[in-house]
Write a sequence for this structure.
């Protein structure tokens, strides 16, 4: 379960995973892996861009959560969609090779750690969100090009990941009171 910081906590968790496994090779420094659109990537070697959030109907919970004295409405189950793009400042002849190495390694890390859990979970996610899955989303080239709407920024090879479900807690609660005393009245039946 998580509070309103779950989106930032998820991004921090994913960055930690990538930074731990991509540095120093093929990315020389951890701060070169970050959250940004490909247009705003600056000097990043690998960017993750959150471009969509959807409710996960399969993981939707309907039961109230007992919080000791109050019942909390069930959390909202969410899936997040990230565009992952590699960037290189190398010369024209080796730029694509560098970007493909970086992207290949990042995809390998996500595949090998398809369930984000344990020590990689940051913030409120570490408090018991459960397993968060990272799945590569198959997209046709034309669909990727439609997604790639970053002004005059030229298209670069990118991949899309669906990450979730992540539970976003509700702030709505319903007070409950314990039954302290119950009065039961038994009626006699005519014994005929």
């Amino acid at each position: 379960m998580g509070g309103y910081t779950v989106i930032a906590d998820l991004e921090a968790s994913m960055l930690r995973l990538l930074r731990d496994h991509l540095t120093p090779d093929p990315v020389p420094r951890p701060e070169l892996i970050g959250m940004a659109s490909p247009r705003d990537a600056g000097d990043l070697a690998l960017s993750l861009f959150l471009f969509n959030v959807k409710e996960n109907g399969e993981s939707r919970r309907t039961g109230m959560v007992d919080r000791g004295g109050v019942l909390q409405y069930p959390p909202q189950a969410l899936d997040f969609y990230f565009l992952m793009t590699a960037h290189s400042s190398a010369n024209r002849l080796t730029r694509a090779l560098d970007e493909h190495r970086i992207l290949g390694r990042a995809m390998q890390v996500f595949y090998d750690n398809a369930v984000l859990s344990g020590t990689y979970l940051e913030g409120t996610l570490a408090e018991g969100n459960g397993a968060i899955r990272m799945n590569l989303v198959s997209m046709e080239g034309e669909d990727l090009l439609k997604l790639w709407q970053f002004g005059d920024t030229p298209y670069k090879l990118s991949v899309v990941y669906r990450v979730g479900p992540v539970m976003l807690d509700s702030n709505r609660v319903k007070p409950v009171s314990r039954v302290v005393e119950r009065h039961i009245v038994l009626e006699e039946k005519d014994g005929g």
